[in-house]
Each structure stands twice: as structure tokens, then as C-alpha cells.
Design brief:
alpha+beta, 4 helices, 4 strands, mRNA binding, transcription, Hut operon positive regulatory protein, activator
Length: 146
Amino acid sequence: MGLNKDRRIGRQAILLLLSDDATSQLQLLEQSNWKGCIGKVGSMEAHKVVAAIETAAKKNGIIDLVYRESHALYHAIIEALHGVTRGQVQLGSVHRTVGLSFAVLRGNPYDDEREGEWIAVALYGTIGAPVKGSEHEAIGLGINHI
């Protein structure tokens, strides 16, 4: 019992994000009754990153328009941003910008269906000064229960 090693939601979100064939990867995940989407966002403002990911998740039917689902997604996004920004979710106010790809994945990573669904947000891209060539790679992962 417990966490199913073949359905670790964070690992699957990162693999989806970094996949060269995300469409096929999404189809495989959907066969396991999971939902997911990918996208890109670039900004000097953290709230724009949050908004882009929330919009993609809503448009792709990953979350319903109820508070608890939006709230779970929000916390997963902020946790992933902590990884990208090294613990301080500040961008433009400290002269940083990001160019990120993201993956959002929803499913049950446990053997017992009663454990319910979880949501994972994976971010990968660059962060740095708003000058071309003054950035470096970064990755972040956030997971929250729904």
C-alpha cells in the first residue's frame, strides 16, 4: 500500500515537462485517468507566471472552477516557483526575469483510490537579469493534494 512507484506524480510531471514528445506522454497519462497540460510563460512578475499556469489548467480542464481546486493549484505553483527562484519568489523587484516551460498534472499517485487526487506543477527554464545571456537554468516542482 501507499505511494505507487510507477505513478509518482512529481516524477511524471517532470518527465512530461522535459519530454521531446509531450503529446504522446500526455496520451499515456490520460489512459491512467490523469489530466495534464504543458505551456510556456516568460515574465518579470511572479503573478503573471501564476496567472498563465492557472489559465492553462482551467482551459484544459485540469481543475474545476471551485475554490479548493484553485487553491491546491496555487500552492503547487508557489512551491515550484520557490525552486526556480531559490526560495524567494521575487522577480522584477530584484531585477530578475524568467522564461519557463511548465507542466501541470493531476491524478492519484496512490494504490488506494481513497487517497484522492493530487496536482503537480513542474517548471523548467531560465532565470536571471533582464539582459540576454545573463541567465541560467532552473527547475522547480510543487505538489499539493486536492
